[in-house]
């Protein structure tokens, strides 16, 4: 193919790529404008390789090389920016968002932790109450998991021999399922999130009260106190995200419900991203630390207390300083 024909065929693509580069370099590019940038960059590199292979003049090859160099710099600069943005969200953006949404977080926390502690105390005072919430078969399985004489703390007999990494994956899927259910059901005008927050609080609290009443409290509480800092906080925050969706539908203000829901979903999804991080951390602790039989209960209580303090300090204070990443 002659050079003139090659240029006429692809010049419009090169000009468009050059304009997009100028937008990226000046910081004026929109996110939607960057979606096709990697594909356009690869196509330009292909054109450059063809021009060099066919021996076209330097009047064509040199400008293409300059475009390819500038494109390479922009491509990898934005890839690095993604990592920086993720780190910024973890270190500052997520806790700021939790504090910003404090009304929903407060309501979700009261529903979840209030029902948890309330039913736990009631089951301690009235042990028969547990049978109205949990079946006898489930109770037998739970008692075998936390029996002080058992050698598979926090695991059923069937899963006792499972590798820690297998249980890590199981815990992630199980916890994410609960969190997503609590979040997504908020689309039912918030009623679904209220139900699952209250129900999960009742279930966890009733089991805790029952096992404590049986004398299994030390094995149970030493097991859950570590990963519970992240797991229980994540469930409450997932509920808060769901309540935000529900409130956008109930009280959209002057906006149409669809627009109010879209705006609420933007922040709710960000909140859920932080929840997923908490659940991964919780699953790791549960698989590799909580189930260990070697540490004494006192050590587990101390580690658990430190983890609860870390979660509280992170959510309350991270990202407050002026030099925190934006």
UniProtKB/TrEMBL annotation:
Keywords (A to Z) from UniProt: Membrane, Transmembrane, Transmembrane helix
Domain of life (superkingdom): Bacteria
Residues spanning the membrane: 104-126, 168-189, 196-216, 228-250, 271-292, 298-317
The protein's name: Stage II sporulation protein M
Organism, as annotated: Pseudomonas fluorescens
